[in-house]
Specification:
Elements: H1 2-18, E1 22-26, H2 29-39, E2 43-47, H3 62-69, E3 73-76, H4 86-90, E4 104-106, H5 139-156, H6 161-185, E5 193-196, H7 202-207, E6 211-215, H8 226-238, E7 241-246, H9 253-262, E8 265-268, H10 282-300
Parallel strand pairs: 1-2, 1-3, 3-4, 5-6, 5-7, 7-8
Helix pairs in contact: 2-5, 5-6, 6-10, 8-9
Bound molecules: zinc ion (ZN).
């Protein structure tokens, strides 16, 4: 009987122990995708948010707590993007996943954060008090975070370090070639004037040297108001506004309002993995983003 119980116990435990892969809990789909690029079949990833959700605002649901409890590595954008929900999840997570520990990667700690405020006044409702946290839409940032993910995977799973190194090198090579091609393809976008809904495309516009005219939100996190939209309309009279861009999770009502008065094209960009059908990995996301922008600008001209 004892033997039988032991056997039953082993059978129950087997699926758990045979699963040798590292569990990666990503706050956003772009980091889950990047972890897969470097970790291959040695990692299993989970993203707390999806492309139809605003990563600033999700609920710290029990299912997310269950996921974070089992995670070996956490990858988030940081710079306050997840401040509304991640601290609640972290309270339930392992000590190894806490900020500053090797199980926690804060992408914005490893890149140059843009739009750092000189004066922080949270009373005005600005949800970017630590600078702009939407760091994944510059390919240079992706490479930097890829390196950090590689280092942490090696620390957590030294046995497979050569495997991670091989994957990192392959990714770096493919990504560098692709980035040069994207930049070349997007030459016509340089200097194009853009209005965004929220400042979630800052890194992209910066990289492509496009011109940021304004946001439909009066401040990051505050919904468009009539007076702010009228102000933008006034500015559009003097600036040659080419595009209004937004993500799949943002309401396009204000964009359509401004578009109908200025004749400016509205473009929905995927923003992250899963933001449209073709954006199923980081390469697809960037390919799609560039293609949609080029198409919209050429229609505009
Ligand atoms: Zn934001």
């Amino acid at each position: 009987m004892k033997k039988l119980l032991l056997l039953v116990g082993l059978l129950i435990a087997a699926p758990y122990f045979s699963d040798a892969s590292l569990r990666v809990f990503a706050c956003e789909p772009e980091w889950a995708s990047l972890a897969e690029e470097i970790g291959g079949d040695k990692v299993s990833t989970f993203s707390a948010t999806h492309a139809q959700q605003n990563p600033h605002y999700i609920r710290a649901r029990p299912s997310l707590i269950a996921k974070i409890r089992r995670a070996d590595l956490l990858i988030c954008s940081g710079a306050g993007l997840e401040v509304g929900w991640l601290p609640i999840l972290l309270q339930k997570a392992d000590a190894a996943l806490q900020p500053g520990r090797r199980g926690y990667i804060n992408a914005s700690d490893h890149v140059t954060v843009l739009e750092l405020p000189t004066v922080v006044d949270r009373s005005l409702g600005d949800i970017h008090p630590e600078g702009n946290p939407h760091v994944h839409l510059n390919p240079v940032n992706i490479l930097k975070v890829a390196n950090v993910i590689y280092e942490r995977l090696c620390q957590l799973d030294a046995e497979n370090a050569p495997y991670y190194q091989d994957r990192l090198e392959q990714f770096q090579q493919r990504w560098t070639i692709a980035s040069a091609q994207w930049k070349k393809r997007s030459a016509s976008l340089k200097g194009t004037s853009v209005v965004v809904y929220h400042k979630n495309f800052t890194y992209l516009l910066d990289w492509l040297e496009m011109k940021k005219v304004g946001s439909l939100e009066p401040k990051p996190g505050l919904p468009p108001t009539a007076s702010h939209l009228n102000q933008l309309l006034k500015e559009a009279e003097t600036t040659e506004l080419s595009l209004i861009i937004h993500t799949p999770y943002e309401n396009d009502k204000a964009a359509q309002w401004l578009s109908s008065r200025t004749g400016t094209t509205v473009v929905e960009l995927p923003y992250t993995i899963g933001g449209n059908e073709q954006s199923n990995d980081l390469f697809g996301l960037y390919d799609q983003t560039i293609s949609l922008l080029i198409e919209a600008v050429s229609n505009e001209r």
